[in-house]
Amino acid sequence: MSIEAAKKRADDFLVKAKESAAIFSQLSQEHVDRIVKAVYEAGFKNRVKLAKMAVKETGMGRWEDKVIKNVVGSLFVYEDIKNLKTVGILSDDRETGIMEIAQPIGPILAIIPVTNPTSTVIFKTLIALKARNPIIISPHQKAIGCCVETAKICYEAALKEDAPENCIQWTREEPIDFATFDIKDYYAETQALMSHPKLSLIIATGGGGVVKAAYTSGTPAYGVGSGNVPILIDKSADISFAVKNILISKTFDNGTICASEQSIVVEQSIADAVIKEFKAQGGYFLSEEEIKKVEKVAFDREREIMSAGVVGQSVEKIAQLAGINVPAGTSVLLAPLKGVGDDYPLSSEILCPILAFYVARDFNYAVKTCIDLNFHGGMGHSAGIYANDDGVIKEFSTEMSAGRILVNTPSSQGAIGGIFNKIHTSLTLGCGTAGKNITTDNITAKHLINIQRVARRRGNERFSNFDANLFYDESLSTDEILRKFNLNY
Amino acid sequence: MSVECIKQPEGRVLCKFSGHIDTRKCLESERDVVSSIECARSIIFDLDGVEYIDSSFLRLCGKAYYKVNAGNFSIINVTPAVKKIFKIAGLAERLNLG
């Protein structure tokens, strides 16, 4: 496809989206809330069908866990945003004289990842519609079928509640036939959409390439960063509970959530107890030789990132790929490592049931190891600690570069909110400037409105009573000016 | 919503709309409007008193616009709120919004 053809295609989408945005801007809060409720109900109703479609099409994860993701993307997101005011006057403070008014931002392009396809479509659609914005769904090339089906289900439900025409669009009708299709065309189409002047915002969830493309398109964007989540088990932790929760999280959808645990760090004094507990709960500790075999299949040395072939795969599949034997029923593979960095490929982010395992001399060394892991490709994302000592939790949290620090909580489910804590439910996790994002927030409907501030006149008493000519007088010291400025105030 | 189309001299047709133009009401009236403007040389949509429009009305504006060529279609008496809708949709200039 030529660049011109890609631009023309993008134009068709954006003309419709812009008209939809115009109509949307008239809708009342009550009407918007009816639409959002209908879309959540439709997504929730189809949670199992869509989960199975996603696993079948992408070959990643477990359908049972994808059902839970769809529940999070529909029910939990809905419960989080349903009472949020997104239309009209948000606040009016007579004392400051400031009134805040919500305005929709306009057409949003949603980049959908292969790891969480259907749940991310439902989630992004709900938050976009709640803020009265039309959305264009751009699925990962390997998840088109399930994403389009999800978008259609959402759109049909929205229209039944008189939502504006074209409030949900999708960039493809059918999955790509990779035998005849040049993937570069797909990238060209996405690029043309991203840089279209009528587009208001991109919400880019996916790998580093697509997020960077979004940021460099010239259109405002919420992106995500890569994670490399360290988990510190402190000696004050309930070890059995900690291991159980880590496994709940790391095995969830075969580890496809970017906030899933990547490394476990323990102090020497409790190392044996932790190892024993992991073994008791189905963890398998790899030998040095087995680590080398797993590294080869799990990490792409040339591109210096995880290998796509292991993402979302089961322990059995990974063991088979690596040519190692693991006991039946193994829940995760643990790799005891001596260091962090390029010489230790399993110290990087790998979205499957593999955990790096570190034993540190004491708490300070454990925190320092977590810092190394955190700064090795996971800055700004998430970190976790198991402890029952608030001082330890505060010390650890202060040293981490992470938008979310999960305490005594499975990090996958903890970071996306709604299940184990009260942070906003979201499948787009901001990673702050450290992760090259504008916010560390969990992105939700409140990020998709423009807030106007009506500023009524309210005098500054000191300024109105002060002779402003004194500011021009260089012979006066700062102290002298401030004394007069603050006199009788 | 109501609409009244008045044939005026020199092939001009004035369509006066009022009320809340939602999809259903717009579709109900569309045939009458289209037949009234069938032979028109110029068309004016008067939106005095219209406080809400839907996508179907934007399409109706498009039909009228293409019927008489650019410059011979205009929309008059829009409220500020409706003017903003046309501006957001990027149609205000093309549809000669008064």
Layout of helices and strands, plus pairs?
The complex is a heterodimer of chains A (489) and B (98).
Chain A lengths: L2 H22 L4 H17 L1 H12 L4 H19 L6 E6 L4 E7 L3 E5 L4 H14 L4 E5 L4 H17 L7 E3 L12 H12 L6 E4 L3 H8 L5 E2 L6 E5 L5 H12 L10 E7 H13 L2 E3 L2 H11 E2 L4 E2 L8 H8 L9 E5 L17 E7 L2 H13 L4 E7 L3 H10 L2 E6 L3 H5 L33 E7 L5 H4 L13 H8 L4
Parallel strand pairs in A: 3-4, 3-6, 4-5, 6-7, 8-9, 8-15, 9-14, 10-13, 13-14, 15-16
Antiparallel strand pairs in A: 1-2, 2-17, 11-12
Helix pairs in contact in A: 1-7, 2-4, 2-5, 2-6, 3-4, 3-6, 4-5, 5-6, 9-10, 11-12
Chain B lengths: L1 E7 L3 E9 L2 H14 L5 E5 L3 E3 L2 H14 L4 E4 L3 H10 L9
Parallel strand pairs in B: 2-3, 2-4, 3-5
Antiparallel strand pairs in B: 1-2
Strand content of chain B: 25-35%
DSSP E strands of chain A, number:
17
Q: Strand-and-helix sequence of chain B, N→C? A: EEHEEHEH
User: In terms of structural class, how would the helical and strand content of chain A be classed?
Assistant: alpha/beta
**Whole-number radius of gyration of chain B?**
12 Å
Termini Cα gap of chain A? 69 Å
Q: List the uncertain runs of chain A.
A: none
Strand content of chain A: 15-25%
In CATH terms, the superfamily of the largest domain in chain A is Aldehyde Dehydrogenase, Chain A, domain 1
Give an overview of the whole structure.
The complex is a heterodimer of chains A (489) and B (98). Chain A has 489 residues and is an alpha/beta fold. Chain A folds into two domains: 3-223 and 443-450, 3-Layer(aba) Sandwich (Aldehyde Dehydrogenase, Chain A, domain 1); 229-424, Aldehyde Dehydrogenase, Chain A, domain 2, CATH 3.40.309.10. In chain A, 42% of the residues lie in helices and 17% in strands. Chain A contains 17 helices and 17 strands. In chain A, the strands form four sheets. Chain A has a seven-stranded parallel β-sheet, with helices on both faces. Chain A is globular and about 80 Å long. The mean pLDDT of chain A is 96. Chain B is an alpha/beta fold and 98 residues long. Chain B has a single domain, classed as Transcription Regulator spoIIAA. Helices cover 39% and strands 29% of the residues of chain B. Chain B is built from three helices and five strands; from the N terminus they run E-E-H-E-E-H-E-H. In chain B, strands 1, 2, 3, 4 and 5 form a five-stranded mixed β-sheet that branches. In chain B, helix 1 (23-36) runs parallel beside helix 2 (55-68). The longest helix of chain B is centred in the first third of the chain and has 14 residues, at 23-36. The radius of gyration of chain B is 12 Å and the shape is globular. The chains are: A alpha/beta (489), B alpha/beta (98). The interface between A and B is medium-sized, with 15 and 17 residues.
